[in-house]
Amino acid sequence: MDLGALKRGVSMGPLAIRHAELCEKLSGMGLSWRDKGDIIPAGSGASLEQLKNYEQIAEANGRLYAQVEESLKKGAFPVVLGGDHSVSAGSVPAVAAAHKNAGLIWIDAHGDFNDDKSTNTGNMHGMPLSAVCGCGPDRMTPYARSYIDPKRAALVGARDIEAAESLRLKDAGVTVFTIHDIDRMGMSEVIREAIKIADAGGGGIHVSFDMDVVTPDAAPGVGTPVHSGLTVREAFLAMEMLYQSGKALALDMVEVNPILDERGRTGMLACELILSLLGKSVF
Known about the structure:
Layout: H1 13-19, H2 22-28, H3 54-73, E1 79-81, H4 88-98, E2 103-107, H5 128-132, E3 153-158, H6 163-172, E4 175-178, H7 179-185, H8 187-198, E5 205-210, H9 232-245, E6 248-254, H10 265-277
Parallel strand pairs: 1-6, 2-3, 2-5, 3-4, 5-6
């Protein structure tokens, strides 16, 4: 999926992560896996200036919702490879429906909390966190039966939030840990607090990781880079702590754009971060 983004190419992100030998490395860790293949959006659909490509996005995410729901019923751990961040509007509601009181840790440089009234662009990859918290736009999640309580949602690593988004995040009760908070508190303390918030209901945590949260020097292959992001080590620490918490239920790894990458660096880093959330350790 790249229908939610301004720049094309991010639809090839899953291929880049697979090419980094994700499945082979999972086997090397002793984990069993099933690659369920790609979900390809329809070639056309309704669109609005404030909700670009909304019908194609919702239809594809409805199919993703069903696939994640099936995996959860079988006791598997869904790993969703993006694609732009609008794919999380399919995966997160499926986890919320399967796990009562589930929470959400959204690791991202951006707020992703716009709706059709607050957006400046109409690009729907800037709306999924709002949508999965039940704050709209409703056309993004017509299949959803459950949403994440915004008070059990933590946004980590933010450094580019629009004014309207900031107000909406505050009004909804989402906890935001900016890059300033990480500098001040340290990543380990931020993740400890984020886990406490997201798992306050005891329902486990969906983790949604946008590669643009990492500083562009280390992850150049993203569509909306923002300077001075997480270091690679901070990103790994977050994933390692989330694994150690035993609370993670599912993972989205999104916004890898191979067209903008350098020698596959961003896809390879995304692959290794997934492995860390699934238990890969140095010793």
